[in-house]
Design brief:
The structure holds two protein chains of two kinds. Chain A contains 15 helices and 14 strands. By secondary structure, chain A is an alpha/beta fold. Chain A folds into three domains: 84 residues, Ribosomal Protein S5, domain 2; 246 residues, Phosphoenolpyruvate-binding domains (TIM Barrel); 63 residues, no CATH class. In chain A, the strands form three sheets. Chain A has an eight-stranded parallel barrel with strand order 5-6-7-8-9-10-11-12. In chain A, helix 5 links the parallel strand 7 and strand 8. In chain A, helix 2 runs antiparallel to helix 4 and helix 13 packs across helix 14. In chain B, the strands form six sheets. Chain B has a ten-stranded mixed beta sheet. A nine-stranded mixed beta sheet of chain B has the order 17-16-15-14-18-21-25-26-27. In chain B, strands 1-2-3 form a three-stranded antiparallel beta sheet, with no helix packed on it. Chain B is an alpha/beta fold. The model of chain B has no long low-confidence stretch (mean pLDDT 94). Classes of the chains: A alpha/beta, B alpha/beta. The interface between A and B is medium-sized, with 29 and 23 residues.
Chain lengths: 412, 524
Amino acid sequence: MGSIATTGNKGKGVRSDCFVTLELTDQGGIQLQVESKVAVMYGDEIRKEALDILDFFGIKHASLKIEDSGAISLVIAARLEAAIKKLITTDKNRHPDMLNENHYVTAKDRNRFSRLYLPGNSPSLMINAGIHKPDGIILDLEDAVAPEKKDEARFLVRNALCGIDFYGAERMVRINQGERGLEDLEYIIPYNVNLILLPKCETPDQIHAVNDKIQEILNRQSSLVTGHSSLVIWIMPIIESALGVINAYAIASASPNIVALAIGLEDYTADLGTRRTAEGTESFFARSMVVNAARAAGIQPIDSVFSDVGDMEGLRQNVIRSKALGFDGMGCIHPRQIVVIHETFAPTSEEIEKAKKIVFAFHKAHELGLGVVALGTKMIDPPVVKRALNTITLALKMNKLAENWRESYEQI
Amino acid sequence: MSKSDKLVKNAAGRIVPTVINGKPAIPYMGVGKYKPDGYRAAPKIASCIDYPADGNKVLPSLKEALLKAGLRDGITISTHHHFRNGDMVATQIFDIAHELGIRDLMWYPSASFPCHEPMTKYLEDGTIHHIEGSMNGALGRFTSEGKMKGLGVLRSHGGRYQAVQDGEVHIDIAVIAAPTADPFGDANGVNGPAACGPLGFALADAQYADKVIIVTDNLIPFPCLPWQINGNYVDYVVVLDKIGIPEKIVSGTTEITKSPDRLLLAEWSAKFCDEAGLIYDGFSFQAGAGGTALSIGIYFSEILRERKWKARFARGGSNKYLVKMLEEGLVEYILDGQTFDLDGVRSMRENPHHTHTSPFTSYNYHGKGNFSSMVDIVILGATEVDVNFNANVVTHSDGYLLHGIGGWQNTLFGKCVILPVPLFRDRMPVIRDEVTTICGPGELIDVIVTERGIAINPLRTDLIEKMKNSSLPIKTIHELKAEAEKICGVPAKPKFTDEVVAVVKWVDGTVLDAIWKVQVTGDQ
């Protein structure tokens, strides 16, 4: 370990972040320099917290410079802790208090139409992510973080899980592949993550390794903190290779805490030796495999992201195709994609009208004690009824239908 | 002469000077409380005898025109800001004054821009004594640090007209940059290489200044039509190679926002207007220039199109988006005070439903009415808002003066004033216990829209009632403030010295607030 460490970001266009330069010295106490665009409002607070953190880690002599572009407290703390841990070895962790709002759990079958990717080392994108109401947010430790920033991103993601309110979105983290991914879990499992995205999943063994590690952390944790061991942490494997596609069902059914199976097409098409096209012919087989594997395992199939954030119509068409293939949701890389994805995955007005008729007939038949549902002279098959019931449930969830629709329906 | 003297507490509870640059000033008394009597100022009577019968008032250089107009120590020189950041005329005036060793001028622009940063050197060397108008960016910083010799005075566009007509400010020489003019001095802003749209900000200057110089780079034979400025007000005409940088005049800074957070603010603001019943067939709105305000126009368009409604008029700041609404028939008239892009200029030139306005017609508080109070929906920005809905547009939370008032104060008289603002910028909460500087009294500000909730002014019981069952997140302003502070922490207040560096005038000429010299600390 050297004696100088830097973490964070600075420069033009950097917002809500800070750059920390820490040098351990032999004597002279703490030399602290804070340059902040919010110095007038928060300069004293930044200074106080920096000294607290150094003290917490037992650092008595150091030169510390914080160049702040308006970072909130938990970001500065993450940057400083990351810098400290580049220089010293310690078992201590200093995370912010967990917000009361962040203690929620998520249901296995909840809606997962949209999940918004947030680069794990970019605080400015995290703070307001929840206001756009995605079904889930993904703090990404993998591809969205530059290799040399992957260590410091862990502290930021941990602090975000503790201190940022995502307003009810399912709290997901995409960990790295392999051994690094298992280490990532140490920074997220104790902080009420709802779901782990597992990239480049090719065999059930990878799931088992992650689950073993989760269990190990929870066991360790439960002796220290109460209330965490009972949490269920869901897993969403991402299929991104030919081998993954071939093993899709084995992966999807590898463990009961797997709730969805996603596909990542950039890596997959590269693995095939082809390119991604707008029509998606090259990935048709893989997408269908993922849909079938997920359905066979009773979980949700989730489609890849649409990467042109300026093309809302293209996105809409893409979602229509995705829905037609049988997918239940899709990744987003920009908050404005969320609305389009929700609107398009949601049942259409025609679908809802049709479902209302069937569901109404179903309830009527039930009330009359009839075993068979009929619309006029036409018999309705049970799977059709089931689909209609699903449509109504979704329409209710999406506020596209009033809870009491049957009352008004009856009057028509 | 002291910069300011005799401090008192005004009706807004702020400490303000009653002597400004040696002249008496009236403290703010409340909205609609101060009513002056007496007569307006009047310019000197001129006579045709002194002007060429052939109508040719052209002089060979700006320097000669300034000298003939009586350039000397201690006078007031005015300019307008229709060229925004592409203005090449204002600094030339002071280059000439500096070269001639003239001192202690007062610069009276209708607004200043980053391109006016060179004025700081003239403020430093004494060529310019002080600025009344707006002090943006570097000029604001200079003022805040107490470096300006005189006291800065900030006025709204309407307040600037009022100050001139009421005799508060006497303009000795008005220099009016005009994209097209004839030798008699008739001028407009809709034609020529530096076309900027209207010239309304120069109207008071033309009407009331002792001497008026038109500067153009597009001289055409008489008559120059339309004559937005009449040559009958004009003393001299000067032709320069180039008076403005077109791409900076029509700056393109007025694009629809791509920020998802700001789009959300726009969407909620439009939804609020709709749910509160503020949008109807024949309504009117003020279209701001900011990205968020522009996006609200897009949402308005969707609503109007769907219901086959029209806005009777939109008050601009026009730009391509508003012009599109006009041309699509979603808006019947644009009443335009300034034009932000070439589509706006073209539309004003070609479309009789797109007319130029001046601060006299739209904003002047000491007139027989003005139309800002007729506008249904006004969308504005703010740097800070306090729990009493008072808002600030000129200083930042660190105490520095950075912006002018523009038409902001004047438009507060609209029927529903909505401020879409982020709850915090980086780590700076926008909602405070008390604003650093009051520019608008809370009683005129109705709704604050943030990305985490919408607060309605408790005075607007009608709006609160209408939004009772809204799907939008209606919260109290205190709840919003608490939410921001939970995320950012509680901000400390800026530390000031006891020296006043500038004042904010209210629309009636009274002193609404003072801006204090900042304490410059070690760390920035």
